[in-house]
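pipeline/complex-builder :: batch 7 item 3
reading input block
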Amino acid sequence: GAGVSQTPSNKVTEKGKYVELRCDPISGHTALYWYRQSLGQGPEFLIYFQGTGAADDSGLPNDRFFAVRPEGSVSTLKIQRTERGDSAVYLCASSLGGMGSPLHFGNGTRLTVT
Amino acid sequence: AQKITQTQPGMFVQEKEAVTLDCTYDTSDPSYGLFWYKQPSSGEMIFLIYQGSYDQQNATEGRYSLNFQKARKSANLVISASQLGDSAMYFCAMRATGNQFYFGTGTSLTVIP
């Protein structure tokens, strides 16, 4: 079946602009996660959805970052007033849930803020 | 606090040899899961192997095995018969109660022909 789909694959934006990153999880996966990965680093947790609600948003770095999952499937990560430090690869992953269920990752969106 | 530590930034292994990638974790939760992922230069994150905290036997998946030592809080990945395509970043991750996944900083593995 189809894997996790993230669009766009690359996004270049100017400092101060607003961006939206989209994630379409594997069908039937109730859990959806957003991570941010900088070069040479491990994935850094941002937010986790169980269904439509954000079960844990403790990783969002500040109030410029927001994510939604209105129908419990597709999710959008929104970044306002982008800064150069926001440049990274944003990874989305979905999971069936349950301790032994692994995360299935998309290919990521590479965000570059100029 | 939950934490994953990978102390080897880079490792080299001769083709066809075995290699062990280290991972230690810290959690007070009695129930947790440990995962290993491979990230080639293309950037995709590929799930390799899973070990549950209550599993009595070490997990194995093909050439991958997990050396789980619960008392030492370690979950090392062993790759046998290394291949050139094994060259990649490898990440250890832990899932504890609350469904949060914690990742280590990764180990870069280079397989030498």
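note: The mean pLDDT of chain B is 95.
queue -> next item
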